[in-house]
Amino acid sequence: MQLSRQAEDLIASLRNFPEKESVAVERGAKSLENLIDVCLERHYIGRETPEEVIIRNWRSIAGANFAGRCAPEKIDPAGILLIKVPSAVVRRELEFAEDRLMTAIRALPGCEIVKGIALRAG
């Protein structure tokens, strides 16, 4: 028979045993199929990551003038796309084109998660 956490703590108190310090909560079993689906979705198994989609389409996103002079690196956990730029001139031009870049990126499948752009020297 399984007792609730409160009942176990009460019994432990009455018997002068320490209460459980764990904050873990029993949530029940999950199906293996559900777990596999979650892992496939979370880790982009069998499909392109947003970074791969952006890299594959970078020439059309940035334009021919900039595609060879800057490169997307990764999307951080906050949804910011990090772009490596070689110089202050390219950086400034991309800052002016940020709205156009964001529109093109968000139009790509799976890239709706991109919330902004950060330019870094490289």
Please provide a written account of the structure.
With 122 residues, this protein is α+β, with helices and mostly antiparallel strands. It is 45% helix and 14% strand. It folds into two domains: 38 residues, no CATH class; 72 residues. Strand 1 and strand 2 form a beta hairpin. The radius of gyration is 25 Å and the shape is elongated. It starts with a helix and ends with a strand. The model has no long low-confidence stretch (mean pLDDT 86).
Give a brief rundown of this model.
The chain has 122 residues and is an alpha+beta fold. It has helices at residues 5-14, 32-42, 50-56, 58-62, 64-67, 88-96, 98-106; strands spanning 71-75, 80-85, 116-121. The mean pLDDT is 86.
Gap between N and C termini, in Å? 62 Å
> How many helical elements?
7
Classify the beta-strand content into a percent band.
5-15%
User: What series of H and E elements makes up the topology?
Assistant: HHHHHEEHHE
Extended strand count: 3
Low-confidence spans: none
Helix content: 40-55%
Strand order, main sheet: write it out: 1-2-3
Overall pLDDT: 86
The number of domains? 2
So what's the overall shape?
elongated
- Structural class estimated from helices and strands: alpha+beta
Cα-atom Rg, whole angstroms?
25 Å
Give the biggest beta sheet.
3 strands, mixed
